[in-house]
């Protein structure tokens, strides 16, 4: 299936979903509370324009770049986040109202029309006020500096000579008209300041083509680590100029691992570092797709193995092949609460360190953001993973 056809299908499905959500919001903010004129017409027209602007923003992202695109996209993306929160709050209120109505009905009580209208208007106003405050907080969190997440991970097969080996993980940078060169320069400076032994970039580099964002991504060439900088594809690489981005990364000296592994050696001992294509690659590009078996074939099973993968669900296959640690991203930690609960429908883990059938996995909440410049209940991060050898008990 061609990328253009995939994009057309995506736009069609997205438009139907967005249209349905806006119709629900319209019913709850205009019809049910009987919003008086002229506000009913104003809000209705605003919702119509906003509903059209979201699928249009995907077209702008794909084909345009520069100041004009940023001026258009930024408010649309803010509304995209606010829309989701508005839908979530209104739906929560409706569930509570439904339970209350059922309880009152079973108890033989009923509400008069005036009281029901007052309650609808009260809940609608409360929802709008709640979302307005949450949007402000989310925007502040989205643009504030990322945190440095430090954690130690013990690998049972890691030799003592490699104890303390550090891997800096950055992921889900999502360079775009709303996240550009200056921001990435800061990411690179903060990552280098950690003085890691190795740097891993676990996918979703940019939302655009090399022609659009090639200059913005140049700071990545300044990443420095004694044992190299490595990259694996995310699903967004397959949406925008896959071959161009892989070539660009190679020009920066960044090694792209495609269902393969390399040996990382220090003090005459080593561990395996492997990387796999994104899970969605097989549907979007010939010859791509996750293949943990290929990456692990022929390796020394007594040696510790660290796998770079974009999506956390790769851990199930990694566990079957004796991988010790998976580093993943993709989820953004949910980015805007309560979206994380929907992410669980596709991914087994959303953030943090977990043990999956003997294989450990760390899921970063992401260094950038996708779409809305907002984070609520999550934090952008650069992760510093320190590998630890098991502590020998005293004999």
How many DSSP-defined strands? 12
* pLDDT averaged over residues: 92
CATH superfamily of the largest domain: Metallo-dependent phosphatases
Supply the helix-strand structural class.
alpha/beta
Helix percent reads 40-55%
Strand content: 15-25%
- From the coordinates shown, what is the CATH architecture of the largest domain? 4-Layer Sandwich
- Biggest sheet, strands in spatial order? 1-12-2-3-4-5
Overall geometry comes to globular
Task: State the end-to-end CA separation.
Answer: 62 Å
CATH class of the largest domain: Alpha Beta
Q: Rounded to an integer, what's the Rg over CA atoms?
A: 24 Å
Task: Label this structure with key terms.
single chain; 395 residues; alpha/beta; Purple Acid Phosphatase, chain A, domain 2; six-stranded mixed β-sheet; 11 helices; 12 strands; 43% helix; globular
Describe the structure.
Helix content is 43%, strand content 16%. It has helices spanning 3-31, 39-63, 67-106, 113-143, 181-193, 210-213, 242-251, 281-284, 292-296, 315-320, 340-343; strands spanning 147-154, 165-170, 198-201, 229-231, 255-256, 260-266, 269-275, 305-308, 325-328, 352-356, 359-363, 381-388. By secondary structure, it is α/β, with parallel strands linked by helices. The protein is built from 11 helices and 12 strands. The chain has 2 domains: 3-142, no CATH class; 145-388, Metallo-dependent phosphatases (Purple Acid Phosphatase, chain A, domain 2), CATH 3.60.21. 38% of the residues are buried. The protein has a 6-stranded mixed β-sheet with strand order 1-12-2-3-4-5, covered by helices on one side. A 6-stranded mixed β-sheet has the order 6-7-8-9-11-10.
């Amino acid at each position: 299936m061609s990328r253009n056809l995939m994009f057309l299908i995506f736009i069609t499905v997205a438009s139907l979903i967005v249209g349905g959500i806006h119709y629900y919001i319209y019913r709850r903010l205009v019809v049910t509370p009987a919003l008086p004129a002229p506000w009913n017409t104003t809000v209705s027209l605003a919702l119509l324009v906003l509903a059209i602007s979201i699928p249009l923003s995907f077209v702008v992202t794909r084909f345009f770049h520069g100041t004009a695109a940023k001026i258009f996209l930024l408010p649309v993306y803010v509304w995209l986040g606010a829309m989701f929160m508005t839908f979530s709050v209104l739906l929560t209120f409706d569930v509570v109202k439904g339970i209350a109505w059922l309880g009152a009905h079973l108890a033989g009580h009923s509400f008069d029309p005036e009281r029901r209208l007052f309650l609808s208007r009260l809940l609608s106003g409360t929802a709008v006020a709640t979302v307005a405050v949450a949007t402000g907080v989310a925007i502040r969190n989205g643009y504030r500096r990322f945190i440095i997440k430090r954690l130690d991970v013990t690998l049972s097969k890691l030799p003592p000579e490699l104890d303390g080996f550090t891997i800096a993980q950055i992921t889900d940078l999502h360079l775009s008209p709303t996240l550009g060169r200056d921001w990435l320069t800061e990411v690179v400076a903060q990552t280098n300041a950690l003085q890691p032994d190795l740097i891993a970039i676990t996918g979703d580099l940019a939302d655009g083509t090399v022609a659009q964002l090639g200059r913005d991504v140049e700071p990545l060439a300044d990443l420095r680590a004694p044992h190299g900088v490595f990259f694996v594809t995310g699903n967004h690489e397959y949406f925008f100029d896959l071959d161009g981005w892989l070539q660009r990364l190679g020009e920066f000296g960044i090694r792209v691992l495609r269902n393969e592994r390399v040996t990382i050696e220090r003090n005459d001992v080593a561990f395996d570092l492997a990387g796999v294509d994104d899970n969605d690659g097989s549907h979007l590009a010939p010859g791509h797709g996750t293949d943990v078996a290929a990456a692990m074939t022929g390796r020394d099973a007594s040696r510790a193995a660290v796998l770079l993968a974009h999506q956390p669900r790769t851990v199930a296959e990694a566990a079957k092949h004796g991988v010790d640690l998976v580093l993943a991203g993709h989820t953004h930690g949910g980015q805007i609460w309560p979206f994380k609960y929907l992410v669980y429908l596709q991914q087994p883990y959303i953030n943090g360190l977990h043990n999956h059938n003997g294989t450990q996995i760390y899921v970063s909440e992401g260094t950038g953001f996708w779409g809305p410049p907002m984070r609520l209940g999550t934090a952008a991060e650069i992760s510093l993973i320190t590998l630890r050898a098991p502590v020998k008990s005293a004999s």
